[in-house]
Amino acid sequence: MPKIPPDQVSTYDRQLLSARRVADRYSVHIRTLSRWLARKIIPPPDETICERRYWYAASLDAADRRRTLEAGNGKTAHHTTP
């Protein structure tokens, strides 16, 4: 993925979401995130700070789009949610 100059990155793209907020985003229990990580349903955390996992909202959006495109192309997905 090409690097975007910092002055062209929106604050939304830089927004870090904690594991709790990611679980809330998908309306699942926080332990489900570990299962999804193991099954590669969501991308690995973008940052780990003091042993806590954080994702950029833009990374999750990109993974959601990719999963939607794969489902539309008839590829089998491990899970239909998130």
Written description of the protein model:
This protein is an alpha+beta fold. It has one domain: Multidrug-efflux Transporter Regulator, Chain: A, Domain 2 (Orthogonal Bundle), CATH 1.10.1660. It has three helices and three strands; from the N terminus they run E-H-H-E-E-H. A three-stranded antiparallel sheet has the order 1-3-2. A hairpin with a 2-residue loop joins strand 2 and strand 3.
Helix-strand category: alpha+beta
Structural domains: how many:
1
Q: What is the CA-atom radius of gyration, in angstroms?
A: 14 Å
Largest sheet: 3 strands, antiparallel
The pLDDT mean sits at 83
What's the CATH class label?
Answer: Mainly Alpha
The CATH topology assignment is Multidrug-efflux Transporter Regulator, Chain: A, Domain 2
| CATH architecture classification | Orthogonal Bundle
Task: Please write the string of helix (H) and strand (E) elements.
Answer: EHHEEH
Distance between the termini: 23 Å
The number of distinct helices, counting runs of at least 4 residues, comes to 3
Characterize the overall form: globular
Main-sheet strand order equals 1-3-2
Helix content: 40-55%
- Give the amount of beta strand, in percent: 5-15%
Low-pLDDT residue spans: none
Provide the descriptors you would attach to this structure in a database record.
alpha+beta, Multidrug-efflux Transporter Regulator, Chain: A, Domain 2
